[in-house]
# Entry
Amino acid sequence: ERLELNPEHDCLYQAQAGLQNQPVSGLLVAGPIAPDQAEPLLAALRACDEPQGPAYLAGLSLNGEFICGRYLGQCSEQGRNLLQRWWQLLRPELLGRPACVPRIWFT
# Structure
């Protein structure tokens, strides 16, 4: 998706509760998560980190039966890599299938 902010939305782009002057944001939603899976999965996901590149913000939360992961930073490749690592960890746990990269990601 693409978010376009016009000059009248500068306060959202700069706000601490907004985008904090970061041009790249990403969201991953996965579920449903069984109650006994939630904490171990969140711990494993939180252990994933982008070892190189600029500083970024990332967060994971459990909303009902769904895990939501968010990225906010300066590098789209870094954000994609982080969300992809989360997905690779979640797919086998939730679907019982290996985490092979979907062909659509190469288009």
About this structure: The chain has a mean pLDDT of 89. The longest helix spans residues 76-95.
